[in-house]
Specification:
Elements: H1 3-12, H2 42-48, H3 54-73
Length: 74
Amino acid sequence: MDDAEFSTIMKKKGITTFWNYIDSGVSVKGVINQLNPKHFTLENYYKGIGNHSYIERMSMMIKMIFFIIMLSIV
């Protein structure tokens, strides 16, 4: 299917907007779904990165905190 055909089908179905999100998280044990706030919490994330070195854990936490702050601004 080429772009024009895909576009025609989507227009016929009334679909005009596509949504995507940036996955900036690191896959860790205990974090099932980053879009589910019950699964994706800083506490669960921190537990999941517990087997990494101190330096790796701190860099992952800083990245995650920064990403959360950026999401709250948008």
